[in-house]
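Entry 12.
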Amino acid sequence: MMWNWLGNGFPFWMVFGGLWMLLFWGLVIWLIVWGIKKITESTKGSSGKSPLDIAKDRYARGEISQAEFEQIKKDIS
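Predicted 3D structure (tokens):
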């Protein structure tokens, strides 16, 4: 008697089962969307640096010579 809803034989726990199913699938869909968003954000390469800043960093680390740095500056502008 306690598990019946409205006395028509419909089990009361089935309502909660449906809500849990909606919650589960909503969470799965949210995780998929979140994961795709994170992957696309990380592949954009948005380091926030301009090409000239990158060239300056490379020159400071000694990866390129002064002549190469000057050529890069010339090519960028």
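Annotation: Residues 1-46 form one domain. Residues 13-43 form the longest helix (31 residues).
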